[in-house]
Design brief:
Number of domains: 1
Structural class: alpha+beta
Order of helices and strands: HHEEHHEEEE
CATH topology: Nuclear Transport Factor 2, Chain: A
Helix content: 40-55%
CATH class: Alpha Beta
Radius of gyration: 22 Å
């Protein structure tokens, strides 16, 4: 290979490598930001729950009839039906208790999809409850929302 071609090849290789590293760094920063955003929503939901405010707790769920909540009794479809299920199952603060989440893993599956696995704990006078959950988050517009919640 001629010296000037070899030099040009090396320079282009270095530029492409630098660009790839820069792009990866930006992608990782975006992933970290998105994961932090969904974790913050989940922690705010726990706070709302602990205040006895189911309506505020539901902010973070997709306000759509396509929302899916999968529990021990099967699948509940839709935001309003999920809210009604929560109201029926947890009619008062005593039943709601104090909620705590432990996040086990969070993985960004695609630019606008995050999968979260964790454990919930309810501390209540009527008896504690706990279990695991899988949340599928989707970025719709500029908002991260839960599109599927499998809790058991």
């Amino acid at each position: 290979m001629k010296p000037h071609l070899k030099r040009t090849f090396i320079i282009l290789t270095l530029l492409f490598t630098q660009q790839a590293l820069f792009s990866n760094a930006i992608a990782q920063e975006e992933t970290d930001k998105d994961i932090a955003a969904v974790k913050a929503i989940l922690m705010r939901q726990a706070s709302d729950w602990n205040k006895g405010d189911i309506e505020s707790f539901m902010v973070g769920y997709w306000p759509s009839e396509k929302l899916k909540f999968i529990g021990s009794n099967g699948v509940t479809y839709g935001y309003e039906a999920t809210l009604a299920r929560y109201r029926k199952t947890y009619p008062d603060q005593k039943t709601m208790g104090q909620l705590n989440f432990d996040i086990i893993s969070v993985e960004k599956l695609a630019p606008k999809v995050i999968l979260m696995v964790g454990k919930f704990k309810l501390k209540r006078e009527i008896g504690d409850a706990s279990g695991h959950f899988t949340l599928t988050w989707k970025k719709i517009g500029n908002e991260w929302v839960i599109i599927a919640d499998h809790t058991g």
